[in-house]
Amino acid sequence: MSDIETRDYSLLGENSRRAVESGLAQAQWYRTDVPRKRMKELMQRRNGPAIRDTALWIGLLVVLGGLGVYLWFSVWSLLCFAAYGVLYGSASDARWHECGHGTAFKTRWMNTIVYNLACFMIMRDPTVWRWSHARHHTDTIIVGRDPEIVARRPPPLGHIAADFLGLFAVPAAFKHMFVHASGRMLAEEATYVPDTERSKTYWTARAWLLIYAIVVVWCIASRSILPAMVIGLPRMYGAWHHIVTGLTQHSGLADDVTDHRLNSRTVYMNPISRFVYWNMNYHVEHHMYPMVPFHSLPALHAEIKDDLPAPSASIGAAFGEFMPVLMRQRKDPSYFIQRQLPDRSDAVRASG
Amino acid sequence: MPNWIVACGTNDVDREDVIPFEHEGCDYAIYRAPDDTFYATDGSCTHEQAMLCDGLVMDYIIECPKHNGRFDYRTGEGKGAPIRVNLKTYPTKVENDTVSIDIG
Which of A127, A117, A110, A55 is nearest to A88 (CA)? Predict the structure, then answer.
């Protein structure tokens, strides 16, 4: 029998109650001071960058998906689907995220359309995940409060590795769809999704299950997996990139703190990953100022980087930092990376 | 019964922007709309109490800096998730380049 202490991450458990009682829930968070005039510039919404990126994203999906189908079955088709999968099963994660914040486009209906499309691709209910992510921003990596903690302590490394191919996330998504389609919420979801919002979730699940049923019937009728290679399966074979980038966000860092510099990580990344990930590599900056659109995060980073811990130089460098920590946490869950903060007493301000 | 208090000068608020105003322990937000009309609301978001003066004013919408919840600051009406409770608004008047609000 293991004597390693397993922490209770349930939103219904003891740690949830403790977080509320101790003031960790809905707390005041540290924020680097940025002059109001400059912050207004950084927060400004624009359609141009998101329209450009979305046109490229959809265009590549159509071209690569079309080539994958046309060249099926060959090495070339598999190469096309390998790229298509990342655009479907990973880029959708970033589009879901940014459009969920409502900051990607200036025009609201554009955010709404891309948000719902991306939610379908990444298999996240648009309503449940909007509220889940609001909680993630309120109580970032607060144990018992944040529903989006990936690298728990001890870290479920097998689970995380399996999700490079969506082996846990996709079955869980279908389980949730079936529960929602029957007109019910999961108990934990009910802690952060208001009653008035739930019917949207039920109808979305029914519509999505209908679409997946059509894909399955199409596969059976055509005696080919090809329809599922285009819709559904790319959430699995193309998931690896969003797991890679997602792991860099908070892994190995502190929990139960109220300073995003201590529990989030900014990573310099190659241009392709930044396109797929929509600049969320500036993750400390995003958490500190979620109003700043993806296209202004590099500028925000330049503005406040002197008050932040040094960013990881690359994805590899980030993994080099946190993987040994995750391995150690398997036996010592109390261990974590303690960030050294710059000494800038002029920059301290709490946020609401 | 009206209870007018001076909140700020007209030049203290940029067009299409918001500033904070505190009076007797209560926080208010003072807005200057694109047409130079002034409005006032409670100072914090009804969702999770973030200070709206740190948010973004776009036309007649104030967007909360924490979760991007949106209100029409003329009426206080919430414009969708995660906002479930409307924002309290206060009458304003401009006299001699000063903005006053009626806190009742």
Answer: A117
